Amino acid sequence: MAEIIPFPRRPQPEDTPEVDLVTAVDVAIRDLRDIQFLRDLADIRARAQECRVMLRRAFESDGAA
């Protein structure tokens, strides 16, 4: 019988620690690069929403808003 290795749970936006704006942009660029290869529209929308929320939180916490 095969051994099943669970993938770690992706952090939800509210679980994500505060990050500075530069780090958030760097992560967003990587996320968007990964999103372009997804095929499931629901996954694409969920990942894009997570990315948007992370950027908004970093932007607001940076005092830029």
Describe the structure.
With 65 residues, the protein is mostly helical. The protein has a domain at 17-61. 55% of the residues lie in helices and 0% in strands. The chain has 2 helices and no strands. The chain has helices at 21-35, 41-61. The longest helix is centred in the last third of the chain and has 21 residues, at 41-61. The radius of gyration is 14 Å and the shape is extended.
Between the first and last Cα atoms, what is the distance in angstroms? 54 Å
Largest sheet: none
- How big a fraction of the residues is strand? under 5%
Low-pLDDT segments: none
Order of helices and strands: HH
Spell out the blueprint of helices and strands.
Blueprint: H1 21-35, H2 41-61
Characteristic terms for this protein:
65 residues, mainly alpha
Compact description:
The chain has 65 residues and is mainly alpha-helical. The protein contains 2 helices and no strands. It has a domain of 45 residues.
